[in-house]
Amino acid sequence: MKNLLFSLPFLSIGLSLYGGKIDNASLLPKYRPDAEVRMEKRADGSSETPEWVKSLIFVEARIDSASTDGTVKGLTPLLDHLAELGVNGLWLTPPVNGGNGYGNFGIHTISARLTGEKDPVRQWQALKRFVDEAHKRNIRVLFDVVTWGATRNEGGAPLLKEKPEWFGEYFHPYRGYLFNWENKELNEWFSSRLTEWLLLTGADGFRCDCAPQYAGFSPYGTAKKRLRRFGRKVIFMSEWICSGRNIFDLDQLTFCYLDNRGKRRTHWIGDVYLKKNIVDEIRTGGELRAYDDMEAEPGRKRFYTYMLSCHDSRSYAVKGSPIAIGYQAIFAPFLPLWYLGEEWNNPSKFFVDYFYRRDKHPTPQNWSLYSNVIDWQAKEQNRDFFEQVKKMIRIRRQHPEIFEYFPDDHRNSNICKVSTDRNGMLQAYARFRSGKAVLVVPNNGKSDETFRITIPIAEAKLPRGKTFQVTDLMSGKALGTAQKEFSAAIPAGGLGVFLIQ
Q: Which regions of 419-494 does DSSP assign to beta strands (E)?
């Protein structure tokens, strides 16, 4: 056995770590139209999903804060940014009329402000052109659809007067009236509008606000069946983690647990695996419980997201930490999801949203990321971290056989513990498949440390009695050979990532 002792460069040396700016656009899986997409079924036949789901990395963006001109027409630079980053899933906040998008006039009312068009036909065309531009860059688009009801702000949604029987009680936190989902006509109308959206825009699915909390599963299930009859192979992502029922393919909020009073709770900031052992949690299912069925065994679905942050988060979760974004999301057996700006540590600069100002919400300092300014100049100021995030995504993209493997049962994910000689650190782990493994070793301590790392030969199903080549994937350097263990110096706050084969 040959010990390997090396020093992992970190943020201070900037671009020399990567040999220049990284562009991951060529590594994105090619967009294929629905007719060429294969649907993958679980062995028990309980669900099926488009095969492209396995490759998704999501970023959420608000149209008017991410755009150069406040409309979808000005989002081309965002698409180029995502492609360079290596992200191929874009969740856009609602492009509808009324309030701020979540305070809305209905999913059938497209915003002239956000599309840059007054004519309804041209509004749909603007959305379709944007989706086409995303597909040219191999990026899938999910539009956000609101299900709670309609707002009475700014004169009130016309739908409130046209269809009063579709509504129930006034809900003060949302400044509007809740839909009465017992109404069959409303269910049919909503299913038809969902179908219309995806047929007219060519988008790849929906992020379904509050689902399945208000509307339940029925209107989405009807729309999904209709879309399949039209040949559309799309996905629906619920906001709350749920049983899915072959209707919701993914959940935005992955974690659900009962608090001390027995009330269902979830996490709005992605720091769960900075507090709990990631391997143990995955093996037992941990907090991966269904919001609509808390008695069901947790962690038994195929796909789970790991949400670092979203528009509802009070602040960014990553804050420039490669451990927070790489260890928990990019390299873990989840589909990563975060709000635009995590990848370069976007600063907190809140603007006064007219909807919130009108309704006298709390002061700007207390608002969520929905009202945060996207500072594109800060990307250049924080170029070191941005390049490191791109490098981690590049590793994920270069090893799809490992990182895009999702068994029917998430508890059987290809992850195992990695032992080191450093106590008090986060659990190091390996992702493995087909005779090779990628070891992810965090140094969450306050000082630089040299780790002695044991190769998990049996646990990672590596061939016994062999000598392994060890490669530092962050620098791309071949580090030599080892049989059972090797040593590595990892700086404080750094993440070592090593290929064993």
A: 428-433, 436-442, 449-454, 468-472, 477-482, 485-490
**What is the rounded CA–CA span in Å between residue 498 and residue 121?**
52
Cβ(291)–Cβ(264) below 8 Å: yes
Residue with tokens 């040299």: 450
Residue type, 221: G
Per-residue tokens: 476: 């791309």
Peptide bond into 212 cis (omega under 30): yes
Q: What's the token pair of residue 182?
A: 């017992």
**pLDDT tens digit sequence for 22-48:** 999 999 999 999 999 999 999 998 899
E strands, 107-155, where?
140-145, 149-151
Residue type, 388: Q
Q: Which two tokens stand for residue 409?
A: 């049962």
pLDDT tens, position by position, 205-222: 999 999 999 999 999 999
Q: Which fold has domain 415-500?
A: Immunoglobulin-like (2.60.40)
Kindly provide the residue ranges of all beta strands, DSSP E only, lying in 269-321, ordered along the sequence.
305-307
Closest by CA position to 113, among listed 104, 163, 373: 104
Tell me the C-alpha distance between 132 and 201, whole Å: 9
Neighbours of 77 (CB within 10 A): 12
Model confidence pLDDT, tens digit, residues 167-207: 999 999 888 999 999 999 999 999 999 999 999 999 999 99
- Burial group, residue 165, by CB count within 10 angstroms (0-12, 13-18, 19+): exposed
Structure tokens at 83: 């492609």
Q: What is the DSSP letter of 297?
A: P
pTM: 0.94
Taken in order 111, 115, 118, 120, the sign of the CA dihedral is: negative
What Rg value do the Cα atoms of the chain yield, rounded? 23
Domain ranges of the chain: 415-500
pLDDT of residue 351: 66
**Alpha helix (H) ranges present in 137-235?**
158-162, 184-201, 218-229
Using CB atoms within 10 A of its CB, is residue 214 exposed (0-12), middle (13-18) or buried (19+)? middle
Percent helix, strand, coil in the chain, to 5, is: 30, 25, 45
Structure-model confidence comparison of residues 4 and 34, the more confident one: 34
